[in-house]
Amino acid sequence: MNALPRLVLTVGEPAGIGPDICLQLATHPLSASVLLLGDIHCLRSRALQLGLPVRLQEWQEGDDWPAIEAGTLRVLHLPLTHPCRVGHLDPANAPAVLNGLDKALALLQAGLADALVTAPVHKGIINDAGIPFTGHTEYLAAACGQNEVVMLLAGRGLRVALATTHLSLADVPAAITRSSLESTLRILHAALIQDFALAAPRILVAGLNPHAGEGGHLGQEEIEVISPVIQSLQKEEMRISGPWPADTLFTPRLLEDADAVLAMYHDQGLPVLKYHAFGEAVNITLGLPIVRTSVDHGTALDVAGSGRAQGESLLHALEAAAEIVRNRRSRNA
């Protein structure tokens, strides 16, 4: 029970800042044992380019789990199809990027690791390679056989979950049904208890329309879908309130009495979260049979290899994954 959490970390898009921020980990004290999944030659080349004195040691299945050693990172070598050019996307390497996720899942499902942390991938180049891909969240959900998962971003004391994720705005209203919203709230509520050790979590639910529908004058979704679900769950003594107008929901007066906010769509909640904590926030996928966290930013191709990449979000993602592992161990003890 006291063993360090074992985290697998995928380096993401090799042409982006994923390798940069992963390599920076060697310069920080860590509270969990970390295994990188990626091309060790790409990582060595990037370390040389960045002037980072990092020792990269190849790890193979069957080896003892890596211990924490200052200045050293262990890597499960997953070769790229083509050599990586910093800042230049190559669709030929897209299958290798997804192979990293598949290998990470295999290690988790075999009980050889406790949690997955992901550096950013580039959705466009994966699709350009002929592989349908909308994001880590959806890919991992499908791989784990989960129909319903929830995206949560957390940073500087604010937690924002999403009722819908990577959808066209025109498709959002139809995607918010009583069934889907109830499932999302149940997943969020359970995760706040299990993963964040909150005994009686308080959740604020945003409305979909301006002014939360203005009593039906600006839309019916609050009346027909959102309010009935909230009222039903309140009868189970869940501390859920709303629907709140999104333009006034994210104010200190309301947030001081909340453990999480549920936004109805991606760009309703995440601009506020990222303004509040960009570079420090963590993306957490709720509802999976595994623990998965990620950074709050993209591949930043223009910064890759320059030494200007900031790795704070990755450090927070590692710490969040380790904390969730410890909370689950404690709860199951």
Keywords for this structure?
333 residues; alpha/beta; Isopropylmalate Dehydrogenase; 12-stranded mixed β-sheet; 12 helices; 18% strand; globular; NADP; EC 1.1.1.262; pyridoxine biosynthesis; PdxA_fam; cytoplasm
Descriptive account of the structure:
This is 4-hydroxythreonine-4-phosphate dehydrogenase. By secondary structure, the protein is α/β, with parallel strands linked by helices. Helix content is 37%, strand content 18%. It has a twelve-stranded mixed β-sheet, with helices on both faces. The N and C termini lie close together (8 Å). The longest helix has 21 residues, at 312-332. The chain is globular. It has twelve helices and twelve strands.
Topology:
Elements: E1 6-10, H1 18-24, E2 33-38, H2 40-50, E3 55-58, E4 72-77, H3 94-109, E5 115-118, H4 123-128, H5 136-143, E6 150-155, E7 158-162, H6 172-175, H7 178-194, E8 202-206, H8 221-234, E9 239-244, H9 246-249, H10 252-255, E10 260-263, H11 266-277, E11 282-286, E12 291-294, H12 312-332
Parallel strand pairs: 1-2, 1-5, 2-4, 3-4, 5-12, 7-10, 8-9, 8-10
Antiparallel strand pairs: 6-7, 6-11, 11-12
